[in-house]
Each structure stands twice: as C-alpha cells, then as structure tokens.
Specification:
Radius of gyration of chain B: 18 Å
Order of helices and strands of chain A: HHHHHHHH
Oligomer: heterodimer
CATH architecture of one domain in chain B: Orthogonal Bundle
Helix content of chain B: over 70%
Strand content of chain B: under 5%
Order of helices and strands of chain B: HHHHHHHH
CATH class of one domain in chain B: Mainly Alpha
Largest interface: A-B, 42 and 55 residues
CATH topology of one domain in chain B: Rna Polymerase Sigma Factor, Chain: A
Shape of chain A: elongated
Number of strands of chain A: 0
Largest sheet of chain B: none
Distance between the termini of chain A: 82 Å
Shape of chain B: globular
Number of helices of chain A: 8
Structural class of chain B: mainly alpha
Structural class of chain A: mainly alpha
Helix content of chain A: 55-70%
Strand content of chain A: under 5%
Number of domains of chain A: 3
Radius of gyration of chain A: 38 Å
Number of helices of chain B: 8
CATH superfamily of one domain in chain B: RNA polymerase sigma factor, region 2, helix turn helix motif
Chain lengths: ~280, ~190
C-alpha cells in the first residue's frame, strides 16, 4: 500500500459531516448566546473602518520594509562613498571602500583620467596602510598575520602606482611633445605629428616630418607654426620629459618602500605624501 | 504573494469584525469552519453526540476569547479555533478521566454516514474506507492521529499545523511521515490477516 493510496482514503473522510439539521439548530443556539454578550450587526461605516484598518495592517509591514530598503538604497548610494573613504585597512568597511573605488573607476571612460584616479587611490591605500602599521596598538605580536597581510598589500599598492604612472607617462608622450626650437624665439611652437594623431594630422611627404597640433603649456591658445624639425631632436626632448617625471616618482616610491621595509613608517608616509602631491 | 496578502487581509478583517461584535462575521466563521472542527473533534474522541457538544463549546469559547484578547498567539482565526479545540478535548479527557482512545466502532454510538445525498456505490466505498480507518486510526498515537486528521482530512497546511501544535514545520513533516508509516503498517497488517 502506497502513501498516495492511503492519503486518498483519508481524503474520503472529508465526507464525514455533522447533520444539516444539527448545523442549523446549533447556529441559532450560538447566535442567541453571543447576542447576550452584545453581538449585533455592524453599520456600513463601521465595516468601512474595519476594511481600512485591516488593509493598513496588511500592507504596513511590507511597506515599511520596502520604504526602509529604498531609503538605504538612496542614502547608501549618496553617502556610501563618503563613509567608506574613511575606512582604514583594518576596518570591516575597508572592503566596501575598495568596491566603491572600483565602481567609480568603472564609470570613467577616459583612460588617462582613470589611471590618474587609480594612482591616487593606490597611493591613498599605501598611506593608510603605513598609518595603520605605525600604530603600536595594531602592530604588535598578537596581530602578526594581519601585519603580514598589510605588508603584502603595501607592496602591491606601490607596484600599482608605478605601473599606472608609467602608463600615464607613455600615454602623454604619444599625443603631446615639446620640442626645443633651434631658433631663439621662445614663443615658437613646433608642430610635429605623432603616430596617434587625430584627424588634424597631415602628412606632407615621406621626407618631411609628420605634422600635428600641440599645445604649449604656458599659453591658453594654441599657435600653429609649421616648421621643419628633425625627428631626432623631437624624440630626444620627448624622452627627457618622460624620464624626468617617472624617474622622480619611481625614485620616491622606491625610497618609500625602503623606509617601509625598515619599519620607518612615518618617513615612508611622508614620501607617499610627496608622490600624492606630484600626481595631483 | 498577492494571494497570501489577500488571505491575510481577510483574516485581519474577520477578526476585527468579530471583535466589534459583528453577528454576520460570526455566522461566516461558523459556516466555514464547523465541518472541519466537528471532524477534528469526532476523530479525536469517537463519540458523535459528544463531538456535537464539544464543537458548540469551541465556537463559543472562540467568540469569548476574541472579545477579551488580542490575537497574537495565533496567526490565523482557523489556527485559533484548532488550538481552542485541542484544549477543549484535553479538558474533556480530564473530566472523563480517560486518555485512551475510544474505538470509532462503539456499539452504542455507531458511526453515522450523514451525507445522504451521495451515490450508493460511493457510500459503500466510503463505508469500506471508514471501516478500515475507524479500526486503525484510534490505535495510533494521539499526536499521529491529530496530524493525520488536520493534514489529510481537514487540509490544513504544514504552517497552520505547526502554529496550532506549537511545533516547527520540519517536526510536523517528520511527524506526518511517521504517522502515515504507522497507519499503513496497521492497515497492511489487517489486510494480511484477512
């Protein structure tokens, strides 16, 4: 005998009912008894109020939950970044800060801006890690696992900063160069085309340099002077510019790393602040 | 989800109406639940006449309870009816000084198949089913019998049964499973004998 068969037999017992005559007489008896305790017919107004109250009670709880959810979503979206930016590497909200920063980076489509922001974030992380490790209450024997983890994170952040800065420098060199003129005219601007020029670049001939538009950093307007210049000279200047910038930050980052490894956290922190100033 | 909300609304409304001494609401509750409560009591105590009396008492007690209390302990009105039914039956057993189940095949109180409108063949089938169950159901443990009647005869949900009995839903599932196994074993044993 299967359970299903047994259940179907049990279901048949639904037909066991009290007699109809007893149902009727019992109903009347009960109504008489409850009338003695004040039972009566409700008015239309009373019925309306009861319907309204019942409806409110039923929707109240889901409405409160929905309202709370919406509030958390809206305010969380508006203020979460401000809250999370204060989170330190040893805080539980730190992961939320990382996620928030990644989300922000994801919304920036310009590669240069994104790399710049990423450098800023990574530098801030490195600074925060240094500050946390400088605190003797955190950096003690009981917390060695966490300390080791933060040390590793610091190195990763430094590497990230170096990589991004290197990329930023490379990007700039592809669209912007400054060439020194062979003349004494300081205002002269030399147009040289780059490989990644936009539609404004014009190639004159194979033997002549490729021409493009550049912006002189000291002026607000672009002056276009076409002149012949040797590619070699342009390349030299370009290299000097790039090298200077990356060398500075790399050097400072290496110094910061060295000081960090020597556990001179305060000095390391100062170095990182310098990097922050450079990249701003 | 909307059906659940509608049912919740109806439950809250009927309870509010009962609290406001609405006669019409009481009649609705009575008509909707009398057969189920009667069956529940009947299969517990085995005496139709006493089942009638106890069923009346249950409805009266429910009315009085709602007037004097907030309905916090029960999620629905139906659950409240069953809880009061269980308490009334416990009091009945206590008064009778008997806790042993009574056979549903009592000579002085023969089982009445009271629905005369059913087909004769169905009537025979029903009586055969009744014969089978009536013999074996009382032999089950009290808690087994109770959950079987609530679930398979009166169609209560597991949540309602859990609310009524004060147990967890998972425990009720296990109880039902064991109850069916026990009833099946008793029935198969009887069939083997025949």
């Amino acid at each position: 005998m299967t359970d299903r068969y047994l259940i179907s037999k049990l279901n048949n017992l639904k037909n066991v009912k009290p007699e109809a005559s007893w149902l009727e007489s019992n109903r009347e008896l009960l109504l008489t008894q409850i009338s003695n305790s004040g039972a009566s017919q409700l008015s239309a107004w009373q019925t309306f109020i009861i319907n309204l109250q019942s409806f409110t009670k039923v929707v109240y709880q889901p409405a409160v939950v929905l309202g709370a959810f919406v509030v958390v979503l809206v305010f969380g979206g508006l203020f979460s970044h401000q809250l999370f930016t204060q989170a330190k590497p040893n805080d539980s909200l730190y992961i939320a800060r990382i996620i928030s920063e990644k989300a922000k980076l994801g919304t920036i489509f310009n590669t240069t801006e994104r790399d710049r922001l990423a450098v800023q974030f990574a530098t801030n992380h490195a600074q925060d890690i240094t500050a946390v490790l400088a605190d003797p209450e955190f950096n003690n024997e009981n917390n060695q696992v966490e300390v080791a983890r933060l040390n590793e994170s610091f190195n990763k952040e430094i590497d990230t900063v170096k990589t991004k800065i290197g990329r930023l420098a490379g990007t700039r060199s592809e669209v912007k160069t400054v060439a020194a003129l062979s003349t004494n005219n300081d205002d002269a601007v030399v147009s040289i085309a780059s490989d990644l020029t936009d539609d404004q670049g014009i190639q004159l001939s194979e033997n002549k340099p490729i021409i493009t538009e550049i912006v002189l950093e000291n002026t607000s307007q672009t002056e276009e002077i076409i002149s012949d210049i040797s590619e070699e000279e342009a390349e030299e200047v370009k290299e000097v510019e790039e090298t200077e910038e990356t060398t500075d930050t790399d050097k400072i980052l290496d110094e910061a790393k060295q000081l960090f490894e020597q556990k001179d956290y305060n000095s390391a922190l100062n170095k990182l602040k310098e990097v922050n100033e450079i990249i701003k | 989800m909307s059906n659940g909300l509608i049912q919740k609304f109806k439950d809250k409304k009927i309870i509010s109406q009962l609290k406001s001494h609405d006669k019409e609401a009481f009649i609705r509750v009575y008509d909707e639940n009398i057969a189920d409560i009667y069956r529940f009591v009947y299969f517990k105590i085995g005496h139709p006449e006493e089942a009638h009396d106890l069923t009346s008492m249950i409805f009266l007690k429910t009315w009085n309870y709602i007037q004097n209390n907030q309905l916090e302990s029960s999620r629905t009105l139906r659950a409240l009816l069953y809880k009061i039914a269980r308490n009334v039956i416990i009091d009945y057993y206590r008064d009778k000084s008997t806790k042993t189940p009574v056979s549903l095949d009592d000579e002085n109180n023969p089982i009445e198949v009271v629905d005369n409108s059913i087909d004769p063949q169905d009537k025979i089938d029903q009586e055969a089913d009744l014969d089978l169950i009536k013999q074996k159901l009382p032999l089950l443990k009290e808690e087994y019998r109770e959950v079987i009647v609530m679930k398979f005869v009166n169609d209560l949900s597991l949540e309602e049964i859990a609310d009524i009995s004060g147990k967890k839903r998972g425990n009720i599932r296990v109880l039902l499973h064991r109850a069916l196994i026990a009833l099946r074993e008793l029935v198969e044993e009887e069939q083997t004998k025949k």
